[in-house]
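Render this sequence as a predicted structure.
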Amino acid sequence: MSAQLKLFESALPRKPYCTDDLQSGLLIRAKGHAVRKRYVQHNEPNSMLWLAFDVDRPTHPEEAYEMGLPVPNIWIQNPVNRHAHLLYSLSVPVHLNPDSSPKAQRFAAAVDVAMTLKLEADAGYAGLICKNPLHKHWNTIALNDDSYDLSYLADFVDLDFAKDARKNLPAIGLGRNVTLFDRVRYWTYKAVRNYRQSDFKTFYEAVFAKAIAYNDFSSPLAMSEITATAKSIAKWTWKQDGRAEAKFITRQSFKGKLGGVASGKARLALSSDKRNQAIELVINMNKTTREAAEILGVNQSTVVRWLK
């Protein structure tokens, strides 16, 4: 078995989506069972190791190269209609968590969209599952054992396919995923404040409903994609909200005090109050000077000076 096929098997999600028949729908199974199915989820829910492209026409292993792109790492063909999935493995996976780099996500999506256009691949392919290259039903060839750097792949495509493409991605391939991800998470960061008196289940249902509403692409993403995106954003936002809200309340409180302070003496008293709170945060609550500065709305150097 080639190095890339070994990588494919080892990097499969612990419980991937899989099926033998697309018409029957997808199942979630343990990796050991899923690896025997004809179709399988190749990327982790929040991490992208593989760029996958669905070529819905008779093709051959060298066609990508003839079209001006590097050869894929794995080429998987349907022996009946000769259509194929092309997989490019990335040397550094792109993470799709709310706290991951939005710039890296948009860059990866832009490259994915541009390669889809250049390959004339299926623009509606969501990339959730692919033909399983380990299944004997397909004609599979491992063409290159070396994973690709995303910047290297970018050199083979034109990223000016749309105005300001990295921020306004076409609704193609990974472009839909990133667009949905951005729209939902920006809504969620503010909306979570309305659910603090409720529970996570209620909050998640609201996020899920918003994700469905935002899935208004001409070729919508599959429900499994919507579910994964909503869960990722809801879990992260709910977990982070406590600290974020503490900062929000503290800042608003101090802004209110500042707005009502008329005299220099009162402002001096407020400054003294902040100093005492900074000492409390750092000494007794084990906050860093940077965290204390963010909570109190002052410069980190000011907190350091107060602690001397």
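Summary. The CA atoms of residues 74 and 142 lie 4 Å apart. Strands lie at 17-19, 27-28, 39-41, 47-55, 74-77, 84-95, 129-131, 139-142.
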